[in-house]
């Protein structure tokens, strides 16, 4: 079964597999409805398309399929993933990961491996994942890391205290500085983050994971 929210892609892949002797059902469905389709049909193997393998919760349909139909082997079909994307797919119970631009022969090999209970992922993807995990590079789209690097260690501490709901007086007392100095630090943090209030700063820090990074001791200059 091939499930993707792009009908043309699902039908084209299904047609190519049919020509190679496979019995295939193509279906177009958003991520929210994919699990329902697969659970109701219970195919041997499901190719489940995604355009955003790094998005939180994107593999929830895989979790549900494996919970309700554990015998179904799920192959994720998507763009070149990050190491986290591959890890998240397998953590959810996927049997493999196939790139959108893979040749049909590669897709077929992945299907055969998944049916045999083996992990199906191209060696090049694994090599890239291991290489990045062993030698991590700063991700240009990592907003939390980018924002954190804009702040000094003291400003990071101020932001953490703001997120904890401390007012200027408490921030000053906790850091051993004058209230006027604390107020200046707060204003600088708001300016650097591009927000207009403490509440916005706290929300931005939480949304981008900046607070988690700050708690881990990763600070900018």
Describe the structure.
- This protein has 12 helices and 6 strands.
- It is an alpha/beta fold and 221 residues long.
- The protein has a 6-stranded parallel beta sheet with strand order 2-1-3-4-5-6, with helices on both faces.
- Helix 1 (7-19) links the parallel strand 1 (2-4) and strand 2 (26-28).
- The model has no long low-confidence stretch (mean pLDDT 84).
- Keywords: DNA-binding, Transcription, Transcription regulation.
- InterPro entries: CheY-like_superfamily (IPR011006), Sig_transdc_resp-reg_C-effctor (IPR016032), Sig_transdc_resp-reg_receiver (IPR001789), Tscrpt_reg_LuxR_C (IPR000792).
- Residues 144-209 form the HTH luxR-type domain.
- Pfam families: GerE (PF00196).
Give a concise summary:
InterPro entries: CheY-like_superfamily, Sig_transdc_resp-reg_C-effctor, Sig_transdc_resp-reg_receiver, Tscrpt_reg_LuxR_C. Keywords: DNA-binding, Transcription, Transcription regulation. The protein has 221 residues and is of the alpha/beta class.
């Amino acid at each position: 079964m091939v499930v993707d929210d792009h009908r043309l892609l699902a039908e084209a892949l299904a047609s190519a597999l049919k020509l190679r002797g496979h019995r295939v059902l193509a279906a177009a469905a958003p991520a929210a409805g994919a699990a329902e389709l697969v659970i109701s049909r219970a195919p041997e193997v499901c190719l489940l398309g995604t355009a955003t393998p790094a998005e939180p919760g994107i593999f929830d349909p895989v979790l549900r399929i494996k919970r309700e139909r554990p015998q179904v082997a799920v192959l994720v079909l998507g763009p070149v993933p990050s190491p986290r994307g591959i890890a998240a797919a397998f953590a959810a119970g996927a049997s493999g990961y196939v790139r959108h631009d893979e040749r049909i022969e590669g897709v077929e090999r992945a299907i055969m491996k998944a049916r045999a209970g083996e992990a199906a992922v191209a060696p090049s993807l694994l090599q890239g994942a291991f290489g990045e995990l062993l030698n991590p590079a700063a991700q240009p789209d990592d907003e939390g890391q980018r924002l954190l690097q804009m702040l000094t260690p003291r400003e990071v501490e101020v932001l953490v205290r703001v997120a904890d709901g401390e007012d200027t007086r408490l921030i000053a007392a906790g850091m051993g500085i004058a209230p006027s100095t604390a107020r200046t630090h707060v204003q600088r943090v708001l300016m650097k983050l591009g927000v207009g209030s403490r509440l916005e700063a706290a929300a931005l820090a939480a949304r981008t994971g900046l607070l988690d990074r700050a708690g881990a001791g990763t600070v900018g200059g």
